[in-house]
Design brief:
By secondary structure, the chain is mainly α. The chain contains nine helices and two strands. Strands 1-2 form a two-stranded antiparallel sheet. The longest helix is centred in the N-terminal third of the chain and has 14 residues. It is globular and about 50 Å long. The mean pLDDT is about 95.
Length: about 200
């Protein structure tokens, strides 16, 4: 049984154990997860994909991400906000994405809401909820990593108050982890602190 500690990969480097199950995860873990993401469209993509992931394995979404990007016009807010009923039906018939009606509808509705925001407003709102790293203990094992935090709960409430859907506290925290608002790489992981290294 795994203790949740960092494990050595094929190259000998220690990584978060979840990263070693597939090559797709190794690349995502090393090059993306936990590194700062900025820009409204980029954050809209991450927020949408985290919502689609709800109840599923992240690898399912990661492997379909190229198809998601094609289906949702690279998650450009203005373009998705202009999607029509015909686009919705196209999405619901697309086997390359997750054809969940509620999640598709939430993504389209969120784009319409965000299209009315000022440039940079989504980025500013999300990043305003990043906790002070100095006040967060460094996780040594997977069991030390939370699924929900006070900051993710506050972010979820702030997004919902502004009209966004499918943004519960767990989804909000997954977004915070993926987009570098927090560094939840384990203490011994080769990628711990990578976002802040020169």
């Amino acid at each position: 049984m795994s203790t949740g500690e960092a494990l050595a990969g094929a190259d000998g480097a220690l990584r978060c154990p979840w990263a070693l199950s597939t090559e797709d995860y190794v690349s995502y873990h090393d090059d993306e997860w936990g590194r700062p993401v900025h820009g409204d469209d980029a954050l809209f993509e991450r927020l949408s994909l985290e919502a689609f992931q709800s109840g599923l394995s992240w690898i399912t979404i990661l492997r379909r991400r190229p198809t998601f990007r094609i289906a949702f016009a690279d998650f450009r807010i203005e373009k998705v906000a202009a999607f029509t009923g015909a686009d919705r039906e196209r999405l619901l018939a697309d086997p390359g994405i997750i054809r969940n009606r509620a999640k598709v509808d939430a993504t389209l509705a969120n784009a319409r809401v965000l299209a009315d925001w000022s440039e940079g407003e989504l980025d500013e709102l999300i990043w305003s909820h990043a906790p002070d790293p100095a006040g967060r203990p460094v996780p040594r094992v997977l069991g030390d990593v939370a699924a929900v935090t006070p900051e993710s709960t506050a972010l979820s409430k702030a997004l919902k108050k502004r009209g966004l859907r499918f943004v519960g506290p767990t989804t909000a925290y997954a977004l915070m982890q993926a987009c570098g608002l927090v560094d939840d790489h384990l203490e011994a992981c080769v990628s711990r602190g990578a976002a802040t290294r020169a």
